[in-house]
Design brief:
It is built from five helices and no strands. By secondary structure, the protein is mainly alpha-helical. Keywords: Membrane, Transmembrane, Transmembrane helix.
């Protein structure tokens, strides 16, 4: 009778929480990691959407700039052509005395031409700089996104490998809870029926000894 009681007490020492403590801890860590990775993916996706909107805005700005440049160029070409035609139609040997007003108009015209040339030049430079910034930003964002995805997969793979090396597995919480309930139920049954539990205890000891 004492031997049966001793065997029953040894079996009562089995604590399911200790058996699954490390496993549950690993599962919690993995769950927290997956949640953080999901949040990171959402942030990256939002950032990528912002980049796409920025790219679209750049394209619109460049398109509007090109339209403005074309208009300025067209006006400039028409003005030059008109003056050339006027000059060609004018008598070649007639000396023209320019009035002060005409001279001032000529100077203003030359100033406007210089201003238009600067606008065209700066517009081209600004367009090139905008395109370089846009493509550089897009490339950096894409590289960072690819690296973050690769890092997430590496962390997940390392964690799963560590769990496997420890001889553990990942189980659903419902399965672990059910197993704990069954173990607790068996312990209570052994306490209530020590005599009837003797064959089961011997069987378990023999099974564990294999």
């Amino acid at each position: 009778m004492k031997e049966e009681k001793l065997q029953s007490e040894e079996f009562d020492e089995v604590d399911p929480s200790q058996l699954f403590e490390k496993l549950i801890t690993k599962m919690d860590v993995l769950s927290d990691l997956l949640n953080k990775n999901e949040q990171l993916t959402q942030v990256i996706t939002h950032y990528n959407d912002d980049l796409l909107r920025l790219k679209s805005a750049f394209h619109q700005t460049i398109s509007q700039l090109e339209v403005g440049m074309n208009k300025v160029t067209s006006i400039f070409e028409k003005e030059v052509k008109s003056r050339q035609e006027l000059f060609e139609k004018s008598p070649k040997l007639i000396q023209v005395d320019w009035s002060d007003e005409a001279i001032q108009l000529q100077k203003k015209y030359e100033q406007k031409n210089g201003f238009y040339e600067k606008i065209v030049r700066y517009s081209v430079i600004l367009s090139l700089i905008s395109m370089v910034i846009m493509f550089t930003t897009f490339y950096v964002a894409k590289s960072w996104y690819d690296q973050s995805i690769r890092t997430k997969e590496e962390i997940r793979s390392d964690l799963l490998h560590e769990i496997h090396e420890d001889g553990k597995v990942i189980l659903p919480n419902s399965y672990v809870s059910e197993l704990e309930q069954n173990t607790d139920l068996i312990n209570k049954w052994i306490k209530a029926n020590p005599k009837d539990a003797t064959p089961f205890i011997k069987f378990k000891q023999g099974y564990d000894a294999k």
